[in-house]
Amino acid sequence: QVQLVESAGxxxxxxGSLRLSCVASGSIWSIFGMGWYRQVAGKERELVASxxxxxxxxxxxxxxxxxxxxxxxxQNTLYLQMNNLKPEDTAVYYCNAGYADPDTNDYYxxxxxxxxxxxxxx
Length: 122
Prior knowledge:
four-stranded antiparallel beta sheet, about 55% strand, single chain, about 120 residues, seven-stranded mixed beta sheet
């Protein structure tokens, strides 16, 4: 089992920045990729960004150029740097960990954090 704990989100003005972090513990050896999803009430959860153990990243089109996903060298802390935030980025953000296909780098989450609220509003 893998446990994931996200940092607190918060309220940010449009155009502002916020960095989320997530610490993984437990069976770290079983993690082949990590990522961030987000969900707005009444809508499906969507992938924001993912990163494989090899450092290959993928982003949703809506956040490309504004968000950056990274992991520390020990591989147990995940980050999401969010810049130029927009009101439509308002959501609950979930850290996750799971499997990444070595051929396609597609990411499949198995473990989830509890989520943290990010609100972008003036």
